[in-house]
Amino acid sequence: MRHTMIVLLVGCLLLSPAGGAAGQGWEKGGPSFLYVKPTKKPPHHGVYDETMKCTDCHSHDGVDAYTSATMAMKKSAKGTMPKQEIAQTITEALKGKGDYREIFVLSTSFNNKPLATVIELVLDPKTFTFYAMSERQTEKLFHIASNEKVSAAYVKQRENYDYFSGALGVQIVGTAKLLHDDDPEFTEAAKIYLPTLPQPVPTGIQPPPLDDMIAMIRHAKIITKITPERIVILNRSFKAKGYHAVQVWEAATK
Ligand code: HEC
Fold first, then answer.
1. Residue 59 pLDDT
2. How far apart are CA 121 and CA 106, in angstroms?
3. pTM for this predicted structure
């Protein structure tokens, strides 16, 4: 343990502020006080390979927020679900009423200032792409136009407020593209998005055919297409199956 402390201390001394993207005074790997000091393992700790040492995950690793936090659990084969099963649990969590339409919070940024917007997204479970439809001239659209990097979060709403033991949440990081007017992808996206729109109270009147609806919105609405790079799902019930509560899905790299 003493060894660990010395390693941490030396690590801190060697680090020089990098500045740049993460802001002024950012040291490589982030501030060391954010790291767990692995003195005693709590009983609720996730499972990991027997061959691993505490410091494999809990040391100032000098990389970035991504590898230092959530990704630590991916270092262990034990407790990690097969990719296909992670994808299934994600689509299951986001299936809504069966139409894969759910309410999320979407985070964007403009001039390095974040904005979180409540928005309905529709997931295409075949491609793992998300779609949203917006009025023109809304703030988040200007954000996306200036910075295509976005993040979204979903949380399963609970009547009993048991967000601690019964937590189920999904976090998405990806790239957004604004589809509009004659963009060929607009039609494709609209075909996925429009059928999930809530139908007005039954009046006996049939909604117009899909192609007519697409023509009606083509020059009025913007469809945002979000291609995820990484999706993290937290579901405490995974633990009962011997898995870690947090599972990470990553898109295949090009
Ligand atoms: C495979 C990576 C990994 C290994 C190995 C590992 N941990 Fe962790 N540990 C994590 C992660 C990730 C978290 C963050 C919480 C979570 O996701 O459960 C964590 C959280 C903790 C926490 C904080 C828990 C809390 O509720 O505040 C302590 C303390 C801890 N670990 C101690 C240890 C000790 C001691 C060892 C070795 C005996 C160890 N860990 C080995 C990944 C690991």
1. 81
2. 9
3. 0.84
- For a ligand 1 pocket test, name from 34, 36, 59, 78 the mutation site with the most ligand atoms within 8 angstroms of its C-beta: 36
What is the CA(102)–ligand 1 centre distance, in A? 32
One of 2.30.110.10, 3.40.50.20, 1.20.950.20, 2.40.30.20 is the CATH number of 83-196+208-250, namely 2.30.110.10
Helix (H) or strand (E) holding 169: strand 168-179
Plot region of 252 (φ>0 → left; ψ -120 to 50 → alpha; else → beta):
beta
Q: Is 65 helix (H, G, I), strand (E, B) or coil?
A: helix
**Mean local confidence (pLDDT), 129-143:** 96
Determine the distance separating the centroid of ligand 1 and the alpha carbon of 36, expressed in angstroms: 7
